[in-house]
């Protein structure tokens, strides 16, 4: 998949990868990965477990060497450089903080390593701690922090040297749902203020939609869709992509092998047309989740409390708005990206 062209006169892209590939024995972890991230832009690498997201991030970081392709950071080719020579901020899942250093010491570590004098490094560290709202805790030992606070220290540590590109691998994965939601908000506003380019790995669709300007959807080592976050979610390229992005109603088209149809809920008109049996009703946060036996397949519908009260019988009348349906290639049987072992990792 080709990313957009680089205009000649604009500032260099914060990141560009060209045909990046990495294989582990028979497993193709990344293949033909072309990404670009403009300064200040956030790109999410989204995909199921085993689809190659972390591999791509490690290749960008220099923690792994690619078998093929190139990595450019701020217009400079860095493919053969070690991580510390790439001037990147890294926050990985196991964000090990240094236990023998306090919060300030942890965050000042990066600038010190880059040659800053102690006073200057601590100044940069304090600015980074302020960005993540932890300036009051600079003297704390890291073992005396909550999980969310440790996560913020890790982020401040990555930000302190002022890297033009920040790489985050599932940065919210070890936190409970409430904290995740709060940090998601914080990160979004932080990215907006910083102007740093960000690549964030996530398998969580909501996180990608909340944080990223653009999304690269990965399956079996390949980028299968790349675009503005809202567009990717609204217009998935295939039945597999639609289901992974959370569309419950994707059905094989009868008599048309390899073709499927996606029925977005906006295309369902309740209370008109033929009546279909309701198979199940479940209470949800918003109202009710219904399953309706429709000739296309079992339709899952989310009704508000008011709609649920209005349509409470054993049957539901509904009509589909043809213009709102999307016909898609049905690639769901091709396997890959579910982390189910080599058989599930054949590239598309
Ligand atoms: N060091 C390694 N040795 C062998 N195989 C590896 C190695 N690292 C990754 N793989 C394999 O490469 C594939 C892609 O892994 P990767 O960790 O990049 O996926 P991911 O999308 O980040 O998954 P997750 O969301 O579970 O972290 C997987 O099949 C994985 O088992």
From TrEMBL:
Record's compositionally biased regions (Basic and acidic residues): 323-333
Keyword Secreted listed: no
Disordered: region residues: 322-348
Protein's UniProt name: ABC transporter ATP-binding protein
Pfam families, alphabetized: ABC_tran
Record-level Gene Ontology MF annotations: ABC-type ferric iron transporter activity; ATP binding; ATP hydrolysis activity
Annotated ABC transporter domain residues: 15-245
Organism listed in the record: Deinococcus irradiatisoli
GO cellular component: membrane
InterPro entries: AAA+_ATPase (IPR003593), ABC_SmlMolc_Importer (IPR050093), ABC_transporter-like_ATP-bd (IPR003439), ABC_transporter-like_CS (IPR017871), ABC_transpr_FbpC (IPR015853), P-loop_NTPase (IPR027417)
Keywords carried by this UniProt record: ATP-binding, Cell membrane, Ion transport, Iron, Iron transport, Membrane, Nucleotide-binding, Transport
Highest taxon listed in the record's lineage: Bacteria
One GO term (biological process): quaternary ammonium group transport
CDD domains hit by this protein: ABC_Carb_Solutes_like (cd03259)
